[in-house]
Amino acid sequence: MSKFTKMAMVLSTAMPLVFGTAHSAHAAGGLISIIVNDPANPYWMAEGKIASDEATKLGYKANVSAHKGDTNVESNLVDTAITNHSVALILDPANASGSIGAVRKAIAAHIPVFLINAEINQSGLAKAQLVSNNAQGAAVGAQEWVKRVGEKGNYAELLGSPSDNNAATRSNGYETVLSQYTDLHKVASQVGNWDRTQGHDKMQSMLQAHPDIVGVISGNDEMALGAIAALKEAGKLGNVKVGGFDGTPDAVAAVKSGELQYTVMQPVAIFSRKAIDQADQFLKTGKTGVTAEKQLFDCVIIDKTNVAKYTAPFTLSD
Predict the structure, then answer these.
(1) What whole-number distance in Å separates Cα of residue 62 and Cα of residue 36?
(2) Domain covering 3-131+267-297, topology
(3) What is the pLDDT of residues 206-243, one digit of tens each?
(4) Class (C level, CATH) for 134-265
(5) Full-prediction pTM beyond 0.90?
């Protein structure tokens, strides 16, 4: 069992409701509620843990919970945050449009909201939206993919959840780069919903229909790792190159072993900490300390040339 799996188990069993009292501006302490997607995915698990650790370091209580992409669960968790008198809410939204109601509900209860990792389709509600620069990450990822795969051949794409704007942003970023190569042809694309098992199953389906593909470009690491498993089962991994996105520990290990060509690392450690820091600043002064609501954080490529530097990618310093 990996240390990240153990950590996810600890988080899932150590998330009791933590009761606190509301605090006015200029007062420190109280409960910060942190709602992530699914701690079973090491990326989201790290997101919650890093934010929780930073909140604790600054003198707050922290409660981490997960909506697993379900807006009804998300709404109920926001209700719990309100009932528990949270002083701030850190939220990785379940749905770009469907989460707006939950954000509004928290704001109506005078709880400032700070969004991380994913956006909502409305500005002016959250105090801050801190996300990876997915367009930049997709562009550098696609450029790296071409270096590995080459400039001609048939390829397939695995897409993330349609309800998450990041999925479309990454796919469009890939297309902008790859469409410049007229001898590269996308012959298949399927939605894998950010999930490893779905990535595996969708890869099997695409491979059966298109056995001649030379590469797979994936919207995240979990789907990429699922695709790698399917390719290994079919005895085709040596002929098909796969690229990922996130920089998860499993993906870094796969880059090191040569099974994954590269991963685009999202700076989750940085924006998870900064969301807490900005919440703290807002609670104490009434201001976040930054001028823009939406803040983009650039991604970096991890490949065989630099993978030794990223043995613990989610704990990189600012």
Answers:
(1) 13
(2) Rossmann fold (3.40.50)
(3) 999 999 999 999 999 999 999 999 999 999 999 999 99
(4) alpha beta
(5) no
